[in-house]
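Sample intake — C-C motif chemokine receptor 3
Collected from: Jaculus jaculus
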Amino acid sequence: MAFYVDDTETVIEDFGTTPYEYEWAPPCEKVSIKELGAQLLPPLYSLVFIIGLLGNVMVVVILTKYRRLQIMTNIYLLNLAISDLLFLLTIPFWINYVGWNEWIFGHYMCKLLSGFYYLGLYSEIFFIILLTIDRYLAIVHAVFALRARTVTFAVITSIITWGLAGLAAFPEFIFYESQKDFGTFDCSPLYPEGEEDSWKRFHALRMNIFGLALPLLIMIFCYSGIIKTLLRCPNRKKHKAIQLIFVIMVVFFIFWTPYNITLLLYAFYTMFLETSCEHSKHLDLAMQVTEVIAHTHCCVNPVIYAFVGERFQKHLRLFFHRHVVIYLGRYIPFLPGDKVERTSSVSPSTGEQEISVAF
């Protein structure tokens, strides 16, 4: 997380050089960057939190109420929405942190929220990978998929995926601590002495492998096979079936690639750039900007569901009519509440019928 930027930074010391260089190294003042973050980040993240929370809660409600979770794809989509919600629920604490420039929630909350933040992030990535593999099996290996794509298999793989995400996020549960610095508390990783650079680089490599390289390789492999299959037997329904997952993957890379590349450059920039205060400031600013872009991804998946999934649109309209329009129709004369009630009463047979593999 790049929510916190130190007021000053001794650039030479950060790169693990000798104490003698620290004696004459001038501090790198970063007060302006932190003040800019305190002004801009809270309103931006508040907007991300509100939109993302409403959208993902609606996805969970629609999936559990109308889809009956009898298809493997829907189970993975539900877990994806839960991952986004877990990620989003940590945002208000970081908003307070960056707005007041101090961590006030204590040591254990620092560990817990930092761990949940990365648990939500990694589980989101892994469930997007599972959705891609699911599409590949359903279209390229359709006969095998009839036996393998069961609810039991989906539940087991979901549990395993959450376990793997927990292992990937385990260092954050261990190393993040509330630390007192210049009279105020901050929530940041406290790595073993003398190993700070190694752990920072490990973190950057882990994020880029799990968050960029692995999903990209799997997407290239799976969608290459899907495209070959569709070219042999073109089918409009199959095109619709992969459209949602394909859009989710493309949007994921658009939002997360700048952050991953910046994080990698931040960890290894002594090998590529001259170690100067200006370069350090520019990287801090780039981290803040790309992280804002990456975090807005939590709001995007529900929008994709609404615009790409025709069946989701029907279920959403049905839910809105049943629970909003009918209720308001009792108090607002010009809303046709009775008519909507009658229409809705015959809709469940359509809404709850067995759905296709496309959302």
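Post-analysis note: Residues 318 and 344 are 7 Å apart (CA to CA).
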